[in-house]
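Comment thread on ticket #2218

A.B. wrote:
> Attaching the input chain for the structure job we discussed in standup.
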Amino acid sequence: MRPLARRRYTTAVSLVVALVVALLMEAWHVGRRVDAWLWDGVAARLAPPVDNGGTLVFGVDDDSLMALEPLVGAWPYRRDVWAHVLDYLREAGAAHVTVDVLFADPRDGDAQLADTLARSPAVTLAAVPVPFRVSPRGAPARPPTIGLDVQGEGPVREALDLVGPRPELQAVARLGVAVTPPDEDGIVRRLPLLTRIGTVTLPALPIASLAGPTRTAAWQSSWWGTSLALADQSVPVDRDGLVQLRYPAAIPDLPTLPFARLVQAAVRANGDQTLREAVRGRRVFIGATALLLEEAVPTPMGRIAGVEFLRLATVLLRDRAVVRPRTWLLDVGVLGMALGVLLASRLRRSTPTRALLVAWMAAWLLVLGIAAVLLLTAHQRVWLHGPLAATAAAAATIAVGDLARVRRDRARLAQERLAAERASELKTQFLNHIAHELRTPVTAILGFGRLIIEGRDAGDPREYARVITRNGVHLLQLVNNLLDDATLAVGRARIDPQPVDMRQVVSDALATVEGLPRHEDVALSGDVATDVPAYVLVDALRVRQILLNLLANAMKFTEVGRIHLAVAWQADGLVVTVRDTGTGMSADALDRVFEEFEFATARAVRAGGTGLGLSVSRRLARLMGGDLTAESVEGRGSCFALTLPARSADAPPETTRHEDDGEDGDADGPLVLVCDDVEDIRQLFAVVLAAAGARVVTASSGREAVALAAAISPDVVLLDLDLGDQDGLTTADQLREAGYTGPLIAVSGSGEDRSAALRARGFADAARKPVSTALLVDLVARQARRWQPRRPDARD
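C.D. wrote:
> Ran it. Output below, let me know if you need it in another format.
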């Protein structure tokens, strides 16, 4: 790759990394917290001073509680005390009064307070929305009587009910919502403007204080976003209906007086002229600041009392110290400009580390400068942590890109060279070995076959046939292992658990390996424990394949003694062991016995094979959720253990054996229709089944099979799936359409396991070529009623 192309490639990679980092920071809650903290710092440093005029807080502090106890009793006070306080503030000329106290319980003086509220429209009481019903069971929730008339559609928080003043107080009072939802980091930065309970919409307490007697509001939309117009205010909100406050750097020093002074002036009428002057024309807030009563609100400036927060939020809303929510268009623009500054020079020439650092700092300053300008001119918030993190990630990627690329190239070239040399060596060894393994049995098959045909040797033809059979089985194992290894390597192997009779599987496996060469002094046996269920849910094809590999392997290395196959049942499945008294293996050979193309010992090389059998068997076991392990002592034998998860299952209808009911069966065997387009296969199947006692009719094509089935009504149909005129599936469909309802048995030369698909198409059973004589007879016997086939001696 040319230098310019390399720089462009590195630039593209760094751009992708930057975008991914930006998106991750936005999606990650920690990233959002960092963005909030960054914005708090920027907003605080650019915040204007807070005007301390126009508001006054009366704090119910600890000194007030102690001073008022002799006068009006202990907290909470009677409602007539609050009536005197509100009357005093109204007469003193307060512009608006916000009481951050819940009058939820009935108390003396409720009627007097209700009369006062009816005469004081500039009073707002606090209420808390809740997401559940607080009304008595069966009674509908009673929404407040007085709410805002909001025009248009906009984001409003919903609540099912309120915890607030007594119903008689709600009927005459104006309510404001006292709720301060925190952000993810527990800091309150945003305030919900409106809350809807049923059909009534209530403002937040700061909004109610600003609105005063105004009872109408309207939603407004523009390209900047959505805002709420109320009185002379237009407050921008985000998609959740929250307004973000623009806090000052520190908690401002705003006027606060003790609540005791207000109560004493209202109850005693002592003519506190200074207090009247302090109240006149101001927005008054009354709430708890005592240690035991206070509910502090966490803000970027620190924790402040709830009533102080309400006053501060009102001041910030009044002074329009709010921030418009982020918009994706501005966020993308800021990110693009920051990355553009960083990456612009990279496309033309190599960027030294120092120049890269300067470009990185310039990108950061650009992001912070844009944020400051938009905040000061348009009260607009922009994305900070995403562009800052993205430019840092892009700069880091570029800085290490060249060095990392060189190192990766060198390491890759070295690894590729070693891998190529190893692959070439393995390929050569494997091809040489496979060529030998294929030529040896083919030589034996062709040689003994010609001796039988020419009849020039006086030897026993049956012995020659046994030699041909053994070498044919050996060839089949080679081909099967190669196909299975390829299937597993590309991930196309599939598992199809079905109800299986393990006793039948063991019998089939032992019958199949009887034809393999073994020493006369080696006994082959097998047993299934009595507690193994009659049917278990496993993949019979894969299990049989593993057992055949293990048994054939044991027969290669056992010269005297026995080979024993045992099946046991555990709570979580099957344990199948193949134990032999052969040569065994050393610890080093045992570690390599499951590796591909490995021959653990020199004897293994001489014994032949592909070196894939045990590797394929273990991978199949693990594909079924189990495992294949080995134990061995050199000179004493080996034990391979197959563990499989399995559970008991009911016998499938299509494989249920029909027990003899005590009457003699039909003297004639079942009528079997064999359909295969290869004459040798038809002849073989016909001879084997006829020898077992069945009556056989053959067909060379699918169409011929359909016609014969309609004419003779066979008991069982053996159907090859790879016919010349039409495939076996089409033939099966035509047989069903023609009225044949008996069992269909599929026979295929394909290396793929299609059992599940074939059962779905109506086949009762299936087998892959080549099919042993014992398995062929068993396939038919499992489907034919009350047929007891004749079986030859396994040695023959």
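A.B. wrote:
> Thanks. Noting for the ticket: Residues 385-454 form the longest helix (70 residues).
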